[in-house]
Design goal:
two-stranded antiparallel ribbon; mainly beta; 1 helix; eight-stranded antiparallel β-barrel; single chain; about 70% strand; 10 strands
Length: about 260
Amino acid sequence: MRKSHVVAGVTAAIGVILGSGLASAADLAPQTYYTKAPAVVAAAYDWSGFYIGANGGWGQERTCETLTNSALNVPVAPRGEGCSTGSGAVLGGQYGYRWQTGAFVFGAEAQGDWSNLKGANVSQVNPLVTNQTKIEGLGLFTGQVGYAWNNALFYAKGGAAVVADKYNGLGTATGIGVDHTSETRLGGVAGAGIEYGFARNWSVALEYDHLFMGNNNKTFASTGLGAGNLVPAGGIRRAMDIGQDADMVTARINYRFGAPIVPRY
């Protein structure tokens, strides 16, 4: 056998072996598998739960007086004494509970505030006297209904209001008190606000409220002081029908207990 024939045979055999090996390696190449990506989960802010917080801001009261009785409680024809507007600070706290169903949020809240809403006007019946009014404190007891856009909440509220009023008659020239009275007045409130949850348990809000405090008739006790004050101390010097309302704008911060974050697919 010739040497060239041997070399050719060996070369052919090597080619067959290599070709077979490459084919087997191709058969064993890893397969590519495609899987569906997992659903994206968005965290839904849940407004449900008890909360407590603080508030502070600005308020304004408007009071109008009508004289109905004069000295020693003698009736007179009603005569307007005039109106006053007083503004000042309010500061207090609130607590309540909310529950959420879908995008709607319902709740109940109690709020109490110290206030310094003080106004005065010179009496149109007796210019020697200036009528001074001051709301020293207030409370709100309200229900709420709102619409939540994840961690933003738009809400309206309404219910009962109570204010602590103090009234003074002062000598216009001297500032000396000539008579006084006080009361706890009941009325209503309506308001609206927007609240934003900036953390799992914390939210801030801006709120407006209008207080409808109606009319009450009040008798004023004399101090026995002041020029021309002929009524002894403690005696009834006059009586007035007093109408009142108030407005408040407050910034609020709340801490909500629990505050679960609900997955939303």
